[in-house]
Amino acid sequence: MTMKKQNRRDFLKLSGMAIAGGFLGGSVALPDRNRLDINSDTLKVGLIGCGGRGSGAANQALTADPNVILHAAADIFPDRLNSSIENLQNNHGERANVPDERRFIGFEAYQQVIDSGVDVVLLTTPPSFRPLHMAAAVNAGLHVFCEKPMAVDGPGLRSIMESVRISKEKNLAVVAGFCWRYHEPKRAFFSRILDGDVGEIRTIYNTYNTGELWYRDRQPEWNDTEYKLRNWIYYNWLSGDHIAEQAVHSLDFMAWAMGDVTPVSVVGTGGRQVRTEERFGNIFDHFALVYEYPNGAKGFHFSRQQANCENSYKAEIFGENGFGTANVSRGIHRVEAGQTWDYSGENNNMYQTQHDELFASIRQGGPINDGDFMAKSTMLAIMGRMAAYTGKKITWDEALNSDEVLGPEIHSLDQHLAVSDVALPGVTPFR
Length: 431
Prior knowledge:
The protein is an alpha/beta fold. The protein has helices at 3-15, 52-64, 78-92, 109-114, 130-139, 154-169, 184-194, 224-230, 236-239, 242-245, 248-257, 350-364, 371-390, 396-400, and strands at residues 18-19, 22-23, 43-48, 68-75, 103-105, 120-123, 143-146, 174-176, 201-210, 265-271, 286-292, 298-305, 312-319, 323-327, 332-337, 339-342, 394-395.
């Protein structure tokens, strides 16, 4: 980091322009959201991963603060990068006008964005790339929005934990893609759980049972590697399996209710009953797991991606004095403990709130850091996958210290990517 850039960051920290939910009034002059006005207060954003979630995060970043610009962007595929920028320009005009020289393509493009002079990076590639990208970002002294999950295996998670440590030393913001932690109804609900309304927790039942997801048909111009990368959710070494890529939100509910205390162990099962075709890679289509906590509490997790089945997306929390439910499918947030409490306040756009609070915290010089809980919630998914794949009881320490690396490092679209066999409980070894 150059001295010039450090001085600029120090100035931004001292400027104190924004607070959560709005900007300070008085004599502070803020730029017109529809006008490009780059100055010493401008925060430059780099987008790394230009798919739907990345484009959404960039839109929310540009909406959160009128003095933010999209400075650089990176993706493996030019079509995704260019369509993302075009859509962002339609919404934000010149503030999203990334010139060709700051549109980076390829597996090293993330580093080019980091080196381009940005202040904040949005890490929204497939999860397997996240540890590498986050390490590079925090080592460069950048604030980070980091989509979930943060890793797909133990070595990747340990790298994330080291990056979190560095981010704290450097006073960097790290906002995680666990979006429900920024949802006002759930903030109110889990506050009551953590305040002891239901007493000591005995059991948590959480689900993410949904239908099948998207699939992209192979195009004539795609080689096998490009085909896999464009369908990354179906390969465990890219996504971590659907327990990590999607159902981790429900596991995060469990972690939140338990005050982010980590479980001792997990045991369970899973497999693929319906989604068995080769085009669905090597992931499972269902998981059923039991987590055991130090105080004897148990967390029961069920997740499924199967069409034409009963869906369920919720957390039910049973304590010694009552019961609470956060039901995403039905929009219910209720605690029953002596008397019934139902949430009746604001229902905010949690995705936007994430970025509102991220940029406000940077402006104020007290950056949010979600690093600890995001790593723990990600490990819940990783250890659950390990237990289901192997059929073994897996402890927290075993999962965290595992040397298993799910997939290869990818450096080129010409690289051959072998797909491992679908795991078989009782046959697949723990590593």
